[in-house]
Amino acid sequence: MNLQSLFQDFNISKFVVYTSLLSFLILFSLRLDEFITIKYVYVFMPLWIWKTLVILGSFIGTIVFLKNPQYRHENDSYIQFKSMLISLSLHLILLMFEFLLCDRLSNNGKQNLWILVFIPLIVSSIISVFFCIWAIKQQNDRSFELELFLSVNALQFVFIPLKLDGFISWSWEIVFVPIWILLCLSLVMMLYSLIFCSILIRTPEMNLTQRQNAINSAISNILVLPILVFQILLADKLDNDNGLPYTLISIPLMVTLFALVLLSFCSKGSSYNKFWFGMRNNMFLNMLGEYGNISITYSRNQQETGNQALSPDSQQIEEKNHKKNVPIIPHFSIETPD
C-alpha cells in the first residue's frame, strides 16, 4: 500500500465531521430509546469535540497568519484566511444551537420554546446563503458543503420548531416537504452520476484518476437511498408511532455516515485550508516526509568489520561476486597499429 497516496487523498476534516456525527447519532438514538440513561451532556460530547478542534485550529491559524507577514503576499492567503474565519463563525453558531438543544432536552421542555432553540440554526442558514455566493465568486478549490447544507435546509429549520411548539397542526409528512424535495433532486443527481460514471469507465481516453473520481462520486450519490429510507421511517414513527425503536430507524443513516467516513480516505484532501492549525501542507504528508523517508548508510569501517565477521567460505563467495562485477580493462588498445 502506498501510504503517500493514501494520506494525500485523505480528508481529515470530513473524517472528523462524519465520525462525530456517527457517534452522536448512535448515542442519541440509544438515549431516546432509553437503552442508556446518561445525561444529554455526554450525548452531545462528540459534537462538542468537533467544535473544539475547529476553534483550536482557527486560533492557532490566526496566530500563524499574524506572526508571518510573508504569508500575506501569497495569491490566495487572504481568501484562505477569510474562509477559515467564515467556517469558524458558522461552527460557533452551531455550537450555540447545540447548547440550547442540550439544555432543552435536559429540562424536559420546561423552559424555552423550540423556536427560540432553533433561532441560531435559522440565522446560520440565512448567513450561509451569502457565504455560498461568496465562495462561488472566489472560484477557488475551497469546498462549502456545510454552508450549502445549511442554506438549502433553511425552510426545514423553520417548520420543525413550529410543529414542535404546536403553532402548526400539519402532519410530519407535510412538515418534511423541504426534505422530500431535496431527496427527489438528489435521486435525479444519483441517476445522472451513475450514467456519467458508466460512460467514463468505458471511455479509453480517461485516466485512472478520473475514473476513480467518477466512481467515488457515484457511490456518494447512491448514499441518498439510505437517507430516504430513514426519512420515511422517521415520518411514519412521528405520525403513527409504528412501534419501531429510534435505534432501528436510524440504522440507514448510520450506514450512510459510516460509508462517508470510509470515503473520507479518498476524498482528495488537497483542498484543505492552509491556516488550520498553522499547517501549510498536508499534516500526514509532512509526517511521512519527516519520519518515513529515512535512509540508512554504512561507513567503510562498518563494511570491513562486517566482512571480518563472515566465515572463510562466505568471504570467498563475496570476493568472486566482487570480481565478476569489476569491469574488464584491456592491457593495451586493440586499435593501436602494429
UniProtKB/TrEMBL annotation:
Pfam families: Tmemb_185A. Keywords: Membrane, Transmembrane, Transmembrane helix. It comes from the Eukaryota. InterPro entries: TM_Fragile-X-F-assoc (IPR019396). Signal peptide: none annotated. It comes from Chironomus riparius. This is Uncharacterized protein. The keyword Transmembrane applies. The chain crosses the membrane at residues 12-30, 42-66, 78-101, 113-136, 174-201, 213-234, 246-266. The lineage of its organism: Eukaryota, Metazoa, Ecdysozoa, Arthropoda, Hexapoda.
